[in-house]
């Protein structure tokens, strides 16, 4: 493995100087790393490749050579600044590593059987036994606090240690802020303004990004590049409003209406409730006991967004603030899904997220009435057991990644 965060200037110069002679290049690579390359058996890893973009460009020739296989890893690897002076090889096959899903979190805690039972319950629409349902709810609340960042999960898994997980999360947030300052360029202050204001924005009822409330104020067009930077860097999961929802959700997408969810709910909990001097233990205790109504559903909605993205879905929502009360509604998320009532043809499925056990679903009724046959199965994600009633499926929050 070559770690470009530790590579010396001499190594980088030799890397560039020997590219025209691959036999010589591989000899130097073995000498510098102390490893041995075996043809068609060795895997070469370029770590933190964003720090040396020329290595990424060189992959084209290394793959064509065919002697070895290669993996490139790095953070903020897709930022324009990190690729503007190189030709991206067409041979690259990209993978985005996201925070652990709830199912993976359960695996990390040694709860593999519970993960399988949750999946079976969702597929069969049969309730889990009450004791296992309560256990799943408890584990999911832990997941909302700890999140899915591998360092935080690893720290927590050793004895359910919230303090260790909190330290790991604070370190990750610090590194993200340093990356924004280092790679954000002229947009750094706007990127930081959005990033730091996410907890405040999501604590509101509407949760849409209000540009005038950001540091320095402004309009949507003033922050377009900053939002793109955060999305490219995989620091946020952007959810876009749809003016006229249909199976082609992107066709009516509005870039002016966006919710910025943090990439990981555990990090959001730390940004919202953590402090350098004060432990957020009291707030976390309320969440673990199921009192998540106190934060107005901020964590619940963010964890649903995170889970939908982990399952491969893009994020869309619908809102209407008409003066006419019959048209006034807010649908948290929209997804496309096969609809049994239309021979499994794809329809729009509205999703409402409920953080409390007592709630109304007025917006779902209005949405169905307004868009009629476009609408398929309706989903309510709530802190209660599974329920099915006609075209509406109410799932426990811990099944949000299985919609």
Fill in the keyword field for this structure:
403 residues; alpha/beta
Relative strand content:
15-25%
Radius of gyration: 24 Å
Largest sheet: 5 strands, mixed
Summed up, the helix count is: 14
Shape: globular
Order of helices and strands: EHHEHEHHHHHHHEEHHHEEEEHEEE
**Quaternary status of these chains?**
single chain
Which sequence of strands runs across the widest sheet? 8-9-10-12-11
Helix content: 40-55%
Summarize model confidence as the mean pLDDT. Answer: 89
Distance between the termini: 39 Å
| Count of extended strands | 12
Uncertain residue segments:
none
- Judged by helices, strands and strand pairing, the structural class is alpha/beta
Task: Give the gist of this structure.
Helix content is 41%, strand content 16%. The chain is built from 14 helices and 12 strands.
Give the topology:
Blueprint lengths: L1 E2 L5 H9 L4 H12 L9 E5 L5 H13 L3 E4 L29 H7 L3 H13 L5 H17 L3 H8 L4 H22 L4 H15 L21 H9 L3 E7 L10 E10 L2 H9 L7 H8 L9 H13 L5 E5 L8 E3 L1 E7 L5 E9 L8 H10 L6 E5 L4 E3 L2 E5 L7
Parallel strand pairs: 1-2, 2-3, 4-6, 9-10, 10-12
Antiparallel strand pairs: 4-5, 6-7, 8-9, 11-12
């Amino acid at each position: 493995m070559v770690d470009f965060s530790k590579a010396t200037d001499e190594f980088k110069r030799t890397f560039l100087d020997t590219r025209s002679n691959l036999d010589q290049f591989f000899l130097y690579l073995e000498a510098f790393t102390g490893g041995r390359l075996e043809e068609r058996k060795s895997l070469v890893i370029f770590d933190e490749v964003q720090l040396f973009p020329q290595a990424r460009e060189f992959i084209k020739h290394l793959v064509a050579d065919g002697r070895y296989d290669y993996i490139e890893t790095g953070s903020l690897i897709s930022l324009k600044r990190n690729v503007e002076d190189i030709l991206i090889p067409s041979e690259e096959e990209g993978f985005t590593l996201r925070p652990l899903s709830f199912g993976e979190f359960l695996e990390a805690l040694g709860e593999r059987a519970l993960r399988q039972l949750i999946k079976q319950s969702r597929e069969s629409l049969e309730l889990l036994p009450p004791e296992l349902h309560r256990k799943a709810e408890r584990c999911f609340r832990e997941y909302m606090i700890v999140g899915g960042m591998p360092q935080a999960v690893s720290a927590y898994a050793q004895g359910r240690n919230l303090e260790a997980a909190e330290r790991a999360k604070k370190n990750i947030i610090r590194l993200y802020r340093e990356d924004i300052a280092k790679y954000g360029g002229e947009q750094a202050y706007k990127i930081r303004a959005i990033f730091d204001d996410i907890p405040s924005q999501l604590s509101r009822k509407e949760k849409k990004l209000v540009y005038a409330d950001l540091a320095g104020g402004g309009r949507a067009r003033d922050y377009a590049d900053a939002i793109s930077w955060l999305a490219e860097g995989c620091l946020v999961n952007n959810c876009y409003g749809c003016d006229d929802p249909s199976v082609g959700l992107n066709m009516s997408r509005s870039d002016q209406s966006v919710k910025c969810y943090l990439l990981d709910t555990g990090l959001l909990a730390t940004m919202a409730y953590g402090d350098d001097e004060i432990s957020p233990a009291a707030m976390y205790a309320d969440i673990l006991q199921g009192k998540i109504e106190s934060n107005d559903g901020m964590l619940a909605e963010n964890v649903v967004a995170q889970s939908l993205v982990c399952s491969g879905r893009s994020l869309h929502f619908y809102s209407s603030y008409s003066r006419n009360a019959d048209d006034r509604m807010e649908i948290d998320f929209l997804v496309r899904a096969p609809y049994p009532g239309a021979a499994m043809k794809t329809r729009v499925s509205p999703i409402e997220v409920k953080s409390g056990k007592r709630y109304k679903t007025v917006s779902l009724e209005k949405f169905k009435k307004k868009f009629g046959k476009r609408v398929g199965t309706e989903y309510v994600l709530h802190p209660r057991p599974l329920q099915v009633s006609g075209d509406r499926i109410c799932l426990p929050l811990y099944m949000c990644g299985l919609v």
